[in-house]
Design goal:
The chain is mainly α. The protein is elongated, with a radius of gyration of 20 Å. The chain is 83% helix and 0% strand. The longest helix has 39 residues. It is built from 7 helices and no strands.
């Protein structure tokens, strides 16, 4: 690798690292905390009641998902430029897969915006729709969000697969990060194929989440942290 390119590669690595770490923080709130706090499985009215009682938290969740989407786009660009010297074609394909995932996530976010409109317009449509109907509509779009996002994460698995291969091929990147990214890609693919196409196998999805939790988390976060502190630097 040309030493003259190192400062430029460092800039791309820092950009990717910051985007990935910001995305991790936003996901911890939007998905890890907020999203799960609203949904009561099998009870649309209780879910709708949670949304009505904590509408500001729900708005914050939607904002969090929007931050995630923007960070994904930035990360796709930065990772492409960073990995381009390793393999230009694979790097470009990986970037496109992440951008496609970001677009699908945008569609999923639109489902949450429809839920927000249902919550905000409840009083205006009270004479037309009952609370039970509004609750059913909100629950339908909340579950639609999960389904659309799962479809996106199957595409995201393809991005992680390519990123893992590129990481293994790169001279100055730890091989263990590449291995974790590959395992994470397998985990995302299996978990969300089961969730999307085998809804009755919920127990299988939960087992897969436990099995792949560490590589899925450690791979992405390890990659982001390495980008933040070491990526693009000349070997000492």
């Amino acid at each position: 690798m040309n030493v003259q390119k190192m400062p430029e590669l460092r800039k791309y690595a820092l950009t990717a690292g910051v985007a990935l770490m910001l995305m991790t923080a936003a996901a911890a709130f939007a998905y890890g905390y907020a999203h799960a706090s609203f949904i009561v499985q099998g009870d649309a009215e209780a879910t709708f009641g949670n949304l009505l009682s904590h509408s500001n938290r729900f708005k914050a969740e939607i904002f969090g998902w929007m931050v995630i989407m923007v960070c994904d786009i930035v990360a796709a660009w930065a990772c492409y430029l960073l990995m381009k010297p390793v393999h230009p074609q694979l790097s470009l394909l990986g970037a496109w897969l992440r951008l496609i995932y970001s677009g699908i996530l945008g569609v999923a976010i639109a489902m949450l915006l429809l839920v927000l409109q249902t919550v905000n317009q409840r009083g205006d449509v009270a004479s037309i729709f009952t609370d039970e109907q509004l609750a059913a509509n909100a629950m339908l779009h909340m579950t639609a969000f999960d389904a659309v996002w799962s479809m996106g994460l199957i595409v995201f698995a393809g991005h992680l697969l390519i990123l893992g291969v590129l990481t293994l091929r790169a001279d100055r990147m730890p091989k263990w990060i590449g291995i974790l990214l590959l395992l994470g890609a397998l985990g995302y693919f299996l978990i969300h194929v089961v969730k999307l196409f085998f809804a009755d196998a919920e127990g299988v999805a939960k087992i897969l989440e436990i099995v792949f939790m560490i590589p899925m988390t450690a791979g992405e976060e390890g990659f982001g942290l390495w980008m933040l502190f070491r990526g693009g630097k000349a070997a000492s």
